[in-house]
Fold this protein.
Amino acid sequence: MSSAKRIEDFRVTRNVALTPRHFLLELLAPGKLPGLLPGQFVQVLVENSTSTFLRRPFSIHRVNETENTLDLLVQIKGEGTRKLSRLREGDRLNLIYPLGNSFSLQKNGPVLLIGGGCGVAPLLFLAQSLCTNDTKVAILIGGRKKHDLFEIEEYRKCGEVFITTEDGSEGEKGLVTDHSILQKEKLAYSMIYCCGPDPMMESVASVAHMHNIECEVSLENTMACGFGVCLCCITPTIHGNQRVCVEGPVFNTKELGW
Ligand SMILES: Cc1cc2nc3c(=O)[nH]c(=O)nc-3n(C[C@H](O)[C@H](O)[C@H](O)COP(=O)(O)OP(=O)(O)OC[C@H]3O[C@@H](n4cnc5c(N)ncnc54)[C@H](O)[C@@H]3O)c2cc1C
Ligand code: FES
């Protein structure tokens, strides 16, 4: 059950640079974290900047309920994410959360999680929730090169990990959809979850449909309010236009007509 939305000041407890373009923010909640679901996101207020008036949306990457922390995995894109990359331990960060729907947690696996680039952000929380649920999990992660892959050891704690890189510097060479685990005549997964660039998610969806497997993807449409009011994040679905920030960000690919 999703919780009511909160606006709270978190404290930065860690800011770790993973690559020159990616960093991990660990944020301490002011009190007990509400129940959070994999796939949900937060809207972050980037302070002291006239060009970042609108909050920036980020998926919940990891949750530690005992420590009351949540982590964000962020790729530097523009002014807002660059400012966030400079946060230091002890700095304050205002969040609206939890926002959006969530992945549907399959009780009977095995399931396959597929992520590309920084699109992997919501997959760690999803993998952790699924394996706590005793679901058998396999994770396929793709990047351009070895240095685009992060936290592989964390995924290995949840299930078997498969890797592709476009230059072949780690795992199998090619795109995620080229990986040999997807080339079998019959795929024995009850669900495929996918996050990454739209063309990658569309190719994964077509593999899933070919094998008659349900597929859920997380969309990253540009957002303003993040809670259903401004209608700037609309996506067409078979049910008509829907708000990615409320009816999504997670959609079954059949709803998207993919
Ligand atoms: C539901 C949701 C979850 C997201 N989760 C993550 C996450 O976990 N980690 C992460 O790094 N990013 C995530 N994003 C994308 C992130 O919100 C944007 O990269 C960020 O807002 C860019 O802010 P900026 O000020 O740095 O860039 P801006 O200066 O605003 O823009 C710089 C460039 O980034 C592009 N951009 C801006 N917003 C988006 C967007 N929503 N999607 C794609 N491109 C965008 C712009 O077109 C522009 O080219 C998520 C987006 C959504 C909608
Ligand atoms: S971002 Fe405002 S309605 Fe979705």
Remarks:
- The mean pLDDT is 94.
